[in-house]
Design goal:
It contains eight helices and ten strands. It is an alpha+beta fold.
Amino acid sequence: MSETSFQQPDRRRPEPLWFQVEEAIRAIVKSGEWATGDQIPAEDRLCALFGVSRITLRHALRNLEESGLLRREHGRGTFVRSTTLVAGTRELTSFTQEMGHMGVVAGSRLLDCSLSKADAIAAAALEIEEGDPVVRIRRLRLGNDEPIGIQTALLAGARVPGFLDSGLLQGSLYEALEKRYGIVPVEARENYRVGTVAAADAELLGLAAGMPAFVVERITTDERGPFEFTVSVMRGDRYEIRSTLRAGRVAANNRN
């Protein structure tokens, strides 16, 4: 790799040095100079190339690892990993927004968009009657053009009249819903479970049928109530759940 690829932080800028290093590494990966699976230079070499301390560099590398861009293997080094969506404490955002926050280019391929009838599960989630109309949107979700998961979203038909003829499936669905119908998400409840990739989805996801997957069910509401019920099947090798646990006050007091 050419050493001219490394943009040293500008100490006159208001952004912290670690943030500038983090963004510089993201740019190198995005350019393709570091490809998926590549081992990045050792810490001491990166410190010299970026002109920063080891503490600053480690701060940047830790953030990149937590966001799923890098993978650290003890005794081996740090590698560029395949696109990974890391789920944890986060804001209520669309897939497009969430991927953007991770420095990943979101994409999707529309697999189906049709009008159907709510089954018992969807009716309960959307607080409508079984058999009521729902708009079914099935999409292959991509990150940097690589398959991450398949999402099937059901929208309460009464909330989105004329949706099928609106051409709203380009870009973020939430942005489109806000512009046309005034629907602004305020809360979402998610349930995670481990499942397997169905035969019908295997080829789309680039996996063998039966491989592990995360199944995520999400009910999203606005001020009027539930408007969306989504079931996502996410690749087990490109989706992580990460959380931080802290001791409660009682436990902390017991150590005093």
